[in-house]
Amino acid sequence: MDPYSLKKLNELRRARRAAILVTDLGDGRDRVVAEGDPVAGQLGAHIANAFRSGRSVTVEAEGRQFFLNVHVPPPRLVIIGAVHISQALAPMAKIAGFDVHIIDPRTAFASAERFPDVRLDAEWPEVVLGREPLDPYCALAAVTHDPKIDDYPLKAALEAGCFYVGALGSRKTHSKRVERLTEAGVLPEAIARIHAPIGLNIGASSPAEIAVAVLAEVIQAFRTRGLQEDGEVAA
Fold first, then answer.
1. What are phi and psi of 172, to 5 degrees?
2. Which Gene3D superfamilies match (predicted)?
3. 232 inside domain
């Protein structure tokens, strides 16, 4: 590997940015492509697919063969609220390969007894996210139903470009949430990215069923990120 490519790749990985080491199998030359860098033609389409799948692959483009060595940060699921839904969602998300982080300032809910083997911070989201900011490889699920706890991380997730932002609550509840976020300066197109009511519409009613719906929607968002911008998925 070219030393410059190695340096760039390590810098991107430290910053939790996805990157692909593209090696021309014909002449051995390589280069690093960060997610979002423009790459035209067939190779660009292959690179976009590799970022979404997270799998390294050999591809052919413009009559040449390339090996795409994919380096994707482990996706994080940040759950705001140590509630019953979170108790079901956290272990399922871990099994699915997500780094799970639960934040809830209410110590009566945020206890190790209720959430064994899960990273848990019994602090206000403003404090936790101040020292560990969100990024595009984070999903955020706000499930406390309390604006004092949910609103800040929702705004932070939209500003950070999280691949998924969801919030628990009825349409009436979300309408009031939209008003508050608008007053806080969040643009309408950003607010429109919030999945509310949270989770796929599968008729879920119990906390465990809602957790299944939320995780399915998170996975869907992760595996289709970027397709909306390409026009491949309906809005």
1. -65, -45
2. NAD(P)-binding Rossmann-like Domain (3.40.50.720)
3. no
- The percentage of the chain sitting over the pLDDT mark of 70, rounded to a whole number, equals 96
Radius of gyration of the chain (CA): 19
Cite the DSSP H helix spans in the chain.
3-14, 41-53, 84-95, 125-131, 147-160, 171-183, 188-191, 207-223, 227-230
Instruction: Count Cβ atoms within 10 A of the Cβ of residue 33 and give its class: 0-12 exposed, 13-18 middle, 19 or more buried.
Output: buried
Residue 130 has pLDDT above 90, yes or no: yes
Residue 167, beta-bridge partner list: 142
Measure the CA–CA gap between 165 and 16, rounded to whole angstroms.
18
Both 106 and 85 in a single domain?
Answer: yes
Rounded to whole angstroms, how far apart are CA atoms 123 and 18?
A: 29
Question: Over the stretch 21-58, which tens digit does the pLDDT of each residue have?
Answer: 999 999 999 999 998 899 989 999 999 989 888 889 99
Q: Which of 17, 50, 71 finishes a domain?
A: 71
The pair of structure tokens assigned to 99 is: 């780094």
Collect all residues with Cβ–Cβ distance below 8 Å to 211 and sequence separation of at least 6.
Answer: 85, 86, 88, 89, 92
88 contacts 78 by C-beta, under 8 angstroms: no
Total count of domains within the chain: 2
The model scores a pTM over 0.85: no
Q: What is the DSSP letter of 142?
A: E
Length of the chain: 235
Q: Is 100 helix (H, G, I), strand (E, B) or coil?
A: strand
Q: Are residues 50 and 84 in the same domain?
A: no
Peptide bond into 38 cis (omega under 30): no
